[in-house]
Amino acid sequence: MTVEYCASLATGKYDYFGVEYSSECYMGNTLSTGSNQSVTTDCSMSCAGNKTELCGGSQRLNLYQATASIVPTTPSVVQGNANYTYYNCVVEPSGGRALPTQILASNTMTVEYCLSLASSYKYVGLEYGRECWASNSLNAAATNATASTQCGKICSGNSTEICGDSSRLTTYLRTAH
User: Fold this and answer.
1) Residue 174, pLDDT score
2) Residue 157 in contact with residue 113, Cβ under 8 Å?
């Protein structure tokens, strides 16, 4: 499922469409009684057909008007802050950790929060959408991903940011001292 595919099914037939739970598409001409707006972070599941798009969540729908132009919210890699710059999508080595110090695992994780918590470290990485890791050196057995899209997990605390993936870290290098 992608936002565009769901839109193609609804356009010309329905006033509204929405994507839910990564792979479900719903359409209709009115909103059901009791429907209300939720916080953006509740709609943080990536689309099954395009990991860079958001497709709702559990019992949460990214809703669109079928007549409006479709511009899905696309999460992206944060390029850093005043002290850090984006380094790469780093693959965890087998039998070890690219960055061995876990700073925090949180369902409200954002890139900015992780960078602020780990500000004394040279390397900081985010993994699996909610984990913050750090070290003053990168494990020599760690490798850069062959494509930055291998880090495609949405941050649990900000659905517009990428926070690594399974065994993949969105990694930052400290540039300020």
Assistant:
1) 96
2) yes
